[in-house]
Amino acid sequence: MSLESSSVSVSGHRRSFSDLLAAHTAKRPRHQSEAELRGAAIQLLNRHQNLSALLLEGSTSVSEAQMDLDVENPAPRAHPSSRAGPPSDLEDSLIVHALQRQAVELGVPVGVVSSKVAAERVVDLMGRSTGCATGALLSSIQRAKLSALVRSIQGLRSKAAFSPHIFCRELWKCQPTLEVAWLLHSGNVVTLELILESEEGGVAWLGAEMRSLCGGAAVGVEEDKEVQQQVLAGVVSVLLQCGFQDPPGRISQLCVAVLEDMLSWVLDGLQQGADLHSGTEAAGSWVWVLDLTLCQVSLSDSVLRRFFTHCLTYVLTCQPQFKVSDAIANQSEWTFAKTTRPLTALYRKLAVPFSVDELLCHLRNVLETHEVNWQHVLSFVSTVLVCDAQAQRTLTELLSQLLSVAFESYDLENMVTAFLLARQGALEGAAVFPSYGEWFKASFGSAAGCYGNSKKSVVFLMKFLSDLVPFDPPQYLKVHILHPPYVPVKHRTLLQEYVSLAKTRLADLKVSVDEMGLYEDSSGADVPVQPGCQAPQDVEKAIRLFESSGKISPAVMEASIFRRQYFLTRFLPALLMPRVLPDSPDSQMSFIESLRRAEKIPASLYSAYTQSCERERLRREHGLEVLKDLQPQERLQAELQELGILLSAPGTEEEVLAQLARISESLALLIPERPDETPVQVTVCLHPDSLASPDLEHQRIADVVLRGFCQSLMDASRLRPPDRQGPWASRFVQMLLGHRKLTACLLQRLQGLICEQGATLEAAHLLGLAAFLMHLHECRARCPLVVPEPGWPPNPVPFSEALGASLPCSTATEMAFALRFCAASVCYALCRFTLPAENVQECFPSSLWKKLVYLLPRLLPGARADPLAGGVEVDDEAGQAAWRTITDPSASWESLVWRLWREPRVRALWMLPGGQLSFAEWLDAELGVQRSRDALTDLERIEYQQWACQQHYLPAPLEQGGCDGDLRRACSQILRSVLDLHSGSPGSRIPDTDTCLPDVVCRLQELMGELDLTPPSPESEDDNGTFLLDLVSQRCSATSDPPALSSQLDLERTLHNWGRVVVALPVTALLSVRTRPGRTSLDCSAFMEHVNQAHRNVCDSAGRLPYTLTAHFFKGALYASLRCKHPSHAVDELLTQLPQRCPLLLVSAGGWWSPLCSVLASLWTRLTGSRLPQEIQRLADCYSWACSTVRGEVVPPPTAEPLLLAAFLHHVGRGQGGDRAIRTTLGRLEKLQERRRPLLVFLLFFCVTDLLAVLVQPPVRPRLAARTRAIFQPAVSCVRICGAVSQEADRAKQAQAACLEVLSYLADSPDWLLLFKSPAAEQHEYQAVSMTTTDRNIRLMPLAFYSLVTNLDTDVLGKVTRSAGFLLPALHSYSALTKLFLDGLIPSPGQAPPLQAVAAAKQVLLKIISQSSVQSSSSQAQLEAACGELDPEVAAALSSHLLYHRHSDPLYGDLDYL
Q: What span, in angstroms and rounded, lies between the C-alpha atoms of 350 and 346?
């Protein structure tokens, strides 16, 4: 019984050791003294001591018991350390005595034992081992236990029974957390200084702990936050006291290193920007630490100042990565507003202990003695200037001092520093520091400047400014040109050279000198001035200065003299823009009058200005007659503006129509058309690849027209809804369609704005373009038809339908715009056009309606309810209400969509034919969504798709685009859409990746799962799962023989995609359970037929189906067998059908048996727990036999089909030793006797398949990159290409050698010739080979035949030639080979061209004819019949040979006589 267990009271609560002693003291006999009782207790402890728990027991028993109660009843209580009082002297004596006894037994000092035991207890309390994560905070229970342990250690130290150094050494074996170290320090157990000094990695450890505590995840518990702040503040206080003490020592260096490490970490986090959030948190925590440090009473002012001075120096000099040229180019990005807030907060906190004078004085010292980080220096200067009003004066004095020193010693560093600081101050605006132009003029603009009249000073200044030219931004070059420094007349050539250099630099930057304004831009933004934009800004500022002072600004007067070209051609035209003059002169009129009196405005220009103002007044009063004097495009803009004025004010319809006629006349002037000109093409192609270079002038006119229509619509809508605005919009569109040259450009521009720039359109433009499109749809009979993209149906479609179909809906941004645009279009059409309910669909394109129907329930979950649930009630005011919502700038688009969705006529559209989106259309749209940029989250998309598939389309009737509750129809449609996704159609807008294909396949899996659980009906029992095969069978049926390359590739892609989808479905999808009277069985007839007809042609080079499909089938057979009465028997019955009906499945199983065996065995064990079915065990036995045979063991083969044994032997031989292993195993098949021959024939077939796989591979040809490399590295490229060709040739020789080796064992038997017979010939025992290879291999069997025969050994060839019936297959093979050659279907084998292969076959055939014998008249007749299919030379040789045999054999003579 331990001490801890003995401290449990009857009530179940733990009691402290003191309480136990007190209880026993109250009950002890009076004759026992306290000394005797102490001795008894010591003896008890010696028998039941646990030193590790004893240190905690003496002070925390009560606390732990109370904590156990707190866990059960979490009521607020005092801190554990406050409940357990200090350890009594008796407890300390007992603990010391126990430790001394242990020390005596071990022969070591008591301090060693106590330190090790205490360190072990600390590690146990932390609950961590070596290498665990840093920065963890203790729990409240751990913290209370550690506090109790600290009090026990204090008692040990008071009795000289504890060694801090040994304790530190033991503690370092498992690095403590920062909180543990701080509690030990604050408890006077070991100091933080001792922990740092006792281990070489102390600095790295403390830095890592502080970083983790500052920048880690936010602490959720308030108590932990307080602990985190207390620990950080306490540790930093210790580091400051030790690090900046006087005089410094080794511990000072360690503490300063920790603080520098922390500061560097904070700056790195803010600089990298990879994780701005974590960097901001780290900086915020450190700024809080600095703030708390300023409030520390225990720190002296000198320590604080030394610390903050050191930190400021470190920040300014940390990572000096920017050169002076970088600072000149980028300092506009380092202003106070562009600097991150945490960094400016750090600057401000570091500046607290100092005055502005002290800060800038220290900054100057740092600049003179250190290499600095210019970004930090300049952003620090900006922060000081913005946050302290006195900084402007101090910085101005500093700049003067720097310039004085620079010109005294001709020091470039002081010069650069002065210019950078002055420019940085100017970037903060005139309220903070004078502009750069003012500072430059004040410093260098007069003879009393800092550099005087010395030639050497002038040369120094000009040289410095010239060196800055390649790096200076344009705005500073402009200042130097507009306000040049004062240079004496005798040195004026130096200034002229600099001005010429600066202007050249501005020309290189494509900044016009003529466009330089009169006033400096103090923002510092290096943005090129747009032509025509600078002069209006100068005019505005000049008028503003005139208002404030009543005088013409000096900049204007100087420009009228020194920059006369800009003043006359830019400034005055901008000032004298025509306008309606007010009755009383305003500031602009007064300014113009002052310039006129000063003779700064030429009389002719002023007269033209007054006349233009008069014309403007007349235009406003009397109409548009004066517009004839304007340019055509200006006139068009003015007429469109006038149209908006007429529509926004009450007027007659005749005035609007007259205005439209004027607009048409202006368009005719801009884009003239001759009456005898050939009309423009009837169709327009909108695909970007098919568009010619657009006429920029026509495009500008189209923009003006569209902008004018949008503005006119908004003006008209302020007074009346669309149905009361009259026919102006329809007439406007009809008028535009009459200008045939403009129409094509207009349609292309409209398509570009809506489909490519829709997200950037404003609400007014969106509404205007939607209305414009509706009127184009209204006039679709006159609008040219368009071909949107290649791959669309060949018949052109109306533009409105094409635009709606091409409206992108792949991303969240595109969906949001498409929903807004479709809603605006439908809303305008319903409000503008009045049609009967049955014809309401004619108001807008059906493609736009389909997009709206698709997007509404997808983006607004509330719209997924049946819109017809509440019935349909016609409300004539609903459309106008929706229009008021759409034109209300304060209303959101969501409210518009909801109001439109509840509009009765919109709900009635669902009842019309074609009013709903079909399931196929929905799938096509959903598959086009990019998952990574979808508006829905993953869970929202799953919820939406499940609603669409199972709640909406599955129960919907067929006439509404649904599936009428038929799960098979739904699954078939999904599979069809998935296969169409990557059909390779050139017009497909769906990307190859990042689609919703995984989600749609998941929905297919869900439906297939429901179908699998649905009891079969009498109608579906005969289906046998063929609905999954119907679609792919239809696509595979329409192929030519031989198929074209494109159709063959499409077929392969379709089959591969089908296979990938099918293996994702339930494994029982390919099989069905057929119920017959008294028994149940598995049926996969449809799948076997599919494999034989289609999938057989997409096998890999080894002649196998894909592993996934093979495993899927066999797993499905095992699963489906559980529905039968005898599962094992059902599997055996199914697999016994495969050798005759679908041998390719067995051959594929043999090829993949190594990975497939364990899968099937474990699956069957999980399903039944019994032995494998007999047929599957037979496959395993065949594999074991093949492995043993290849290893050289003589093992009798299992009872199995020769085809299956040959397949296993072939695949195992290739996998374990290649073709050499197959050759070495042939001799071991001698003992098979009668089973040996068919096995060798099938093995020869598989070897021939390998040979054909090598022959049909494309030869290695040097690609373009290889050719390019060969130009520069001919030797290396030649070696690489020749190596690749040699490798292909070696593979062909190895495959051919294996075939010849097998054929040598079959030379005496004619059975192998049956492999080369046509599949349409008579049935034979080797007929199954045609069902295990591709049609291409069957066609190329003649090529394989002669590839073998031409390379046979002479003896083997003689045996083969003498075998019965050899000549006839040779003739048929040669005939088929020549046909392949004529059709161009012989692949180049890499060794010889096709013609050479045919010639070699011909030579060996002639040799065979000469050596063969004819044994019967029937064979002679067959040979004579084959002559008609041969070329003349071979036919003649065969006829001569037959004639010779006929005359030399008397039997033939008798037959001829008869």
A: 6
